[in-house]
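User: Okay, second chain of the day. Same drill as before: sequence in, structure tokens out.
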Amino acid sequence: MEVLPIFTAEASLIDLFREFLVVYEETELDDKDDDTLFLNRKGRRFHEIYFHNYFNDTPYELSYNHSESEKSIIELFFDGKEIKSFSVQYKDLKFLDKLLRDLRFSLKSENVLQWTLLVHPLKGVVKLSDCL
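Assistant: Same drill. Structure tokens below.
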């Protein structure tokens, strides 16, 4: 499993993302516990997406799991705003990219897109609105 870190100034993003995943036509909710949703791709028996349904300790996340360059880009982008972070674990990058495109489309009228960054494994730090 790989990890997709997500940083946002909009606390509502975590709820919007969770709601999207539960109704997303490409996934099925298989199980959940207090802090994680376990989702399968439709027609498959193994967990494809683990959605961590809680905010991380962002200063720790930035200092421990990200390069100085990534940390600098993220902090500069948010320019003093409070930064929230959470993560999604995934198995298939192509599937994750499709899911992110569909999420972006479903949130196009929401304000959260302009204040959300991802640390994409191939593209680095990118805005959710620009990532794919």
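The radius of gyration is 14 Å.

User: Thanks, on to the next one.
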